Amino acid sequence: MRHEFCLLCQKPIFESTSLWNYLVSCDMLCERCRSSLKKIDGIRMLTNLPVRVLYDYNTDFQKCIIQYKECYDEALASMFLYDFKSKLKRKYKNAVLIPMPSSIEKKKERGFDHVEKMFECLDLPIIHCLCKTENYDQKMQNKLGRSHIHDIMRLNENIILPDKKIILIDDICTSGSTLVAAYELLKEKSKNIEACVLASRAETVGKKRRKKFEKQNLRNYT
C-alpha cells in the first residue's frame, strides 16, 4: 500500500523524495522524517542477554514513540520496522516472540498492545506469558528503584513454551531492568534467548559487537 502523506508530518511524501523512490517505495514516512530516525542495528549486552537495538533513542525517536503510545496513534505501528522487516524475518525464522508486558490498565487505556502491534509484521508466533501485577512505568522505576520490576513481573506457568529460540521484544531499553527480569524468569525454560528492541541510547550499543555476535551465532542473518 502506497501512502500519499507522511504519517508524522502529514506532508505529501512525493514532495521530499524522487519520483523513482516514490514509485517503488511503500514507506509511510517522507524522506525527511525517515532520515531523522537514526538507525543503529547493534548489540547491547545485559548480563548474558544480547539485545539487538535498531534505533538511537534520540529526540526525534522519542517524539514518534510518544505519538504512537501516548496519543494512541495506532497507524504508526508499522513504520518502526519498515527498514528492518526483511532482515528480521530471516534472522528470527522459526523463533517465537515474547513481548514485555504492559499493565492491564495501560492496555485498556490504549486499546491495543503497542509492542505486539509493532512486531506483528514479522509474521512470527507471539506468546504472552509474562504479566505485571501492577502498573509500572519510568517514573515508578525512578522512585522505587530498578530492582522493583523483579517483584511485579510474573511468568504464567500454565503456558508451555515451544522448543524454539525465544526473542524478547520491547520498544525502549533504558536501564534494561525489564528485559533482565524477563530473562531471569525464562532462562530455566530455554537456553536460547535473545532480545530485540526498537531503541536505546547509542552509546550503550556496539556495532562491532553485533558483527561478532552475528558471525558466531546468527549465520542466517544478512
Task: Please tell me about this protein's structure.
The protein is an alpha/beta fold and 222 residues long. It has helices spanning 19-24, 31-36, 59-69, 85-91, 104-110, 114-119, 138-144, 149-152, 177-186, 207-217, and strands at 39-46, 49-56, 96-99, 130-132, 153-155, 166-172, 193-200. The strands form two sheets. It has a five-stranded mixed beta sheet. It has a two-stranded antiparallel sheet with strand order 4-5. Strand 6 (166-172), helix 9 and strand 7 (193-200) form a beta-alpha-beta unit. The chain is globular, with a radius of gyration of 18 Å. Mean pLDDT is 85; it is low at 218-222.
The number of domains is 2
Using the alpha-carbon principal axes, give the shape.
globular
CATH architecture of the largest domain: 3-Layer(aba) Sandwich
The overall pLDDT average reads 85
Instruction: Kindly report the spatial arrangement of strands forming the biggest sheet.
Output: 1-2-7-6-3
SSE order: HHEEHHEHHEHHEEHEH
Q: For the report, how would you describe the main beta sheet?
A: 5 strands, mixed
Helix content: 25-40%
Low-confidence stretches: 218-222
- Please provide the count of β strands: 7
For the record, give the distance between the C-alpha atoms at the N and C termini, rounded to a whole number.
Answer: 26 Å
Question: What is the tally of helical segments?
Answer: 10
The whole-angstrom Rg is 18 Å
